[in-house]
Amino acid sequence: MSAEKLKDVKKVVLAYSGGLDTSIILRWLQDTYGCEVVTFTADLGQGEDIEPAREKAKLMGIKEIYIEDLREEFVRDFVYPMFRANTLYEGTYLLGTSIARPLISKRQIEIANETGADAVSHGATGKGNDQVRFELSYYALKPDIKIIAPWREWDLTSRTALLEYAEARQIPISKDKRGEAPFSVDANLLHASSEGKVLEDPWVEGADYIWGRTLSPEDAPDKPTYVEIGFEKGDAVSIDGEALSPATLLTKLNQLGHDNGIGRLDLVENRFVGMKNRGLYETPGGTILHVAHRAVESVTLDREMGHFKDELMPRYAKMIYNGFWFSPERQMIQAAIDYSQQDVTGVVRLKLYKGNTTVVGRKAEKSLYSADWVTFEESAVADYDHADAAGFIKLNALRLRLKKIFQG
Prior knowledge:
By secondary structure, the protein is an alpha/beta fold. Helix content is 40%, strand content 19%. The protein folds into three domains: 4-70 and 98-180, Rossmann fold; 185-363, Argininosuccinate synthetase, chain A, domain 2 (Alpha-Beta Complex), CATH 3.90.1260; 377-407, no CATH class.
């Protein structure tokens, strides 16, 4: 929707971090649309104090300021459902940025409804995936919402132009923001990602200073750490026997992952908008959780159910990556995934050592694993007859034999 068509905007809810870019966006919205701005700042576990955003918003004349701790909701209602599917985009990416956008969008729309706002705004650029994720979510939740995407509208196309705009309007600029950052960072409780600038050449190894959430595996302790993670219906609920809330549990796994150099990833991914992007991602607790969840499924999930889940997963991952969290097809697949998790309850023991997460034990009350059935020794199970395998093999070989007989 063009700026001309949006001139009648009365009130807009801005996803506001309190940083320089969104502070500029805040003033730009006031200057361009002459509208009232409501700011929304979410604590998703990014590791920064978000309260200063309140004072910055007040200084810029904002009367309705929302600052909320959404960490528990983030892990419980977004991260955990995604992890039940063992979700990986393009086989490697645990979707740390992607999964945060639906929650921010959802809360923005709720605030718009609460305050009578007729528009929402975000700070995503016109080249990235986030603009798509935010806006697909907005439209899914409130079809008639007006959306303002400043980076697609304004002419502030350089760092110099942004700084000049800020200085002309007395927007505070901290010293560390005056120079151009060597790379951009997005972070939440699940992950931290670093992209751009010094990372744009995929042949050049990322420098040590870029990694902020994990020790280098070389610097991790020479002694392994053992940890037990308990699951109920596919969700992690305890560490070493201690029951923990979703956000508290992930926070503890993040520390264990940090200390043991776990969760680093250097990847080139395919963005939804069409270009490839290189990034350095850190998902310490999520990497541990992913390995542990697959391990508890290995003893509790029926073979065909597990294989079918694995077939659904790439499609499900693509939906989340591309911004279709609130789509009917994602919800349909989620229902199937959640059904599969009814008996995924048990405990997994892991060894964490110098960047590696190794499963060393798993148990469950409803385990489908039976030593009596699988043993190479004399079995106590009377129902399994080795001779049955001959007919099983011959029937499965029939199509192979017919092809050879009739087609050579």
